[in-house]
Amino acid sequence: MTRLALAVLLAVSCGLNARASSDGKSTESSVLDYALASDVDTLDPHWGYDAVSLFVVDQVYETLIDFKGESLDAFEPRLATVVPSLENGFLSKDGLTYAFPLRLGAKFHDGSTLSSADVKYSLMRFLLLDREGGPSNLLLYALVGVRSASELPPEQIFDLADKAISTEGGSVVLRLQKPFAPLMGILANFAHIVSKGHVTANGGWDGRKDTWFRHRNPAKEKSALYARANGTGPFRLESWDRAGKRIVLLRNEAYWRKPASLARVNLIALSNSLDRRKRLAEGLIDAAFVERRYLDQFQGLPGVVVTDGLPALEAQNSVLLNQRIETRENPWIGSGKLGDGVPPDFFADVEVRKAFAFAFDYDAFIIEGYRSKAIQARGPIPAVLFGYNERQKPWPFSPYQAEGAFMRARNGEVWARGFSLSVAYTEGNSERRIACRLLKEGVEKINPKFRVECRALPESRLLDEFRARRLPAFVYRWILDYPDPHNAVEPYLHSRGYFASLLGYANPRADAMIDAGAAEIDPAKRKALYRELQALAIFNAPAIFTADSYNIVVRRDKVQGWLYHPIQPYGTLYEVTKIP
Questions:
Q1: Whose CA is closest to 480, among 372, 386, 340, 371?
Q2: pLDDT for 339-398, tens place per residue?
C-alpha cells in the first residue's frame, strides 16, 4: 500500500512576531510556522506510511542515499559516502550486490555516533517490523523475496534478512536473490537510519533473532519510536503535542553538513483552507501546497507566487472494478443478480469493463474536475515517469461503442436484464464525486435498465470495505512509493499487487512482464516491457484510468530555496531560506 492522501492541502506559515528557539538564536527570518491540513500519525520512520508523517520523518532522519535535486532516477550520498554504480564498482555486474561505504562520523541528535551496526539494525528493523498495511513489503520483496514476514517461519525470515544485509569494512552490503531495478528509489525514500541503542532503551527490538517476532506488526502507539525521535537529520524533535496537533523542530547545530538556515519550525494541523487563505493574505502564511479545487482561493494575492504544472507521481482517481466480489453479508451488490443488483463476477467479463471505459466522459472530467489542467491518462504510469508511452491511445468516450460492448457482455444478458450498481468514492473529495457522477450519467444514458448509485464513504471505511472485497466498484488513486514504473503497474496488473490481488484480476502475461521488468537492468529492455504493460492496462481494462494532472505550490515571495520533488511533495526544509 502506498502513502495516503498526498493531495492533502498543506501550508507553511511564519509568525509576524518570531518566537525565539530554546537556543535563543532564532530571528523572524529563521522561524517557520508550518500549517498542515492533517495531523501527524506517527514519528516512527519504519511504521509510518502517510505523507504527513513521512514529511516530518524526512526532516529528522536520513537514508543512505537521496534523490539528487528534482531528479527521479539520479541519486546522491547521505549517510553513505558513495552511490553504488557499475562504473564505480560498488554495484556488481550481475546487479545482485550493492555496497554502501558509510559516513561514520555523523552524529545522532542525542550525541551518539553513527555506526555500521546502527545501519544494519535499521534496515533489519524496517524489514521485520512489517506492520499491517505498512511499507516493509517494499524492501522485503527486494531483499527476501516475500511481501510479508508472515509468509515464512520467523527463524527463516530472520536468517534470510540477516544474510541479505551485512557489514563489511565500514560498509553495509546488500545481497539480492535476483536483480531488482527499483531498489535505489526504495532506499532513498523509506529506509531511514535509526539508533539501535535509542530504540532498545525505549523498549524496542534489541536486534536478536529470538526476540524479533514479538515486535512484528506493533500497534501504532506501542512502537518504540511512535512519539520519540533520534535521527541524524538537519532538524531534531523538540516536542509533539498530540492533543494540540503541534510539533516543534529545532535546527541540528551538530549536523554533518552545514546547519540549516531555519532555526525553528512549528508544525500545526490546520484543516480549513479559507483560514489558510486568510493567513496567507495577512502575511502569516508563507507557502502552500494546494489541491487544485482550492486554487482559486489563493490566486491573485499580493506577494504570492503560484507555481503550477509540477509533476505528480500518481494514477489519479481511477475507477477500480472488482472481478470477485465477496457475497457474504454484502449490501453493496443488491440481490447479487442482474436486474436489481450485480453478480459477484460482473466485472470479470472484459466486455463489461470495456463498456464502462467507453461510457466515461474523460474530457468533461478534466474540464470539471481539474479545470483543464490535466491530460487523459494512458494507463497507470504517470506521464513524468520512465517507461511512459505518450503515443499509447487511451479509451475514447464513445456511448456507441459502450452500447456494443454491453450488448456482447455475458451473452446479451446484461443488455436484456440490466443491473443496479453501487459505486463508492471518498467523502469530501470533489474530483472523485465528479468522476462517479460522470460514470453514472454515461452508463444510465445507454440503457434505462442500467442504474448506478454513487455513495460517499469516509476514507477509512472505504478502505475497510475494499479490503473486505465488498465494493463492486469505487473511485480511488494510487500514489507511487518510489519513482519507478514497477510501482505503477504492479498494484493494478500483478495478481499479487495491492489492487489486483483484492479485486480478482489475474493475467499470467502481465505477471511475467512485471517480474521481468523489475529484474531487468537494461533500461531499453525495461522501457519496452513497460510500454507493453501500459498497452495491456488499456486493452484489458482492469480499471478505468481517467486523468494525469499536476501539483501546485503556493508561496510568499520571501520564501526561497523551496525544493519540490514529486516523491516529496511537501518539500524539504533543509534548503529553505527566508528573506527578512
A1: 386
A2: 999 999 999 999 999 999 999 999 999 999 998 999 999 999 999 999 999 999 999 999
Cα–Cα distance between 543 and 231 in angstroms, integer? 41
Q: Which residues of 274-289 are buried (b: 16+ CB within 10 A; e: fewer)?
A: eebbebbeebbbbbbb
3-class DSSP state of 11: strand
**195 Cβ partners below 8 Å, 6+ apart?**
108, 110, 112, 118, 230
Number of neighbouring beta carbons within 10 Å of residue 19 = 12
Residue with grid cell 549517510, as numbered in its chain = 79
CB 547 within 8 A of CB 375: yes
Domain ranges in the chain are: 1-57+233-303+557-580, 62-222, 314-548
- The CATH fold of domain 314-548: Dipeptide-binding Protein; domain 3 (3.10.105)
**CATH class of the 62-222 domain in this structure:** alpha beta
- What's domain 1-57+233-303+557-580's superfamily in CATH? Periplasmic binding protein-like II (3.40.190.10)
pLDDT confidence bin for 266, thresholds 50/70/90? confident
Letter for the amino acid at 323? Answer: Q
Q: Please, what is the Cα angle at 246 between 243 and 252, to 5 degrees? A: 135
* pLDDT tens digits along 503-539: 999 999 999 999 999 999 889 999 999 999 999 999 9
| pTM recorded for the entire structure | 0.85
Asked if residue 132 has pLDDT above 90, the reply is no
Residue 58: phi, psi to the nearest 5?
Answer: -65, -20
Residue with cell 469493463: 353
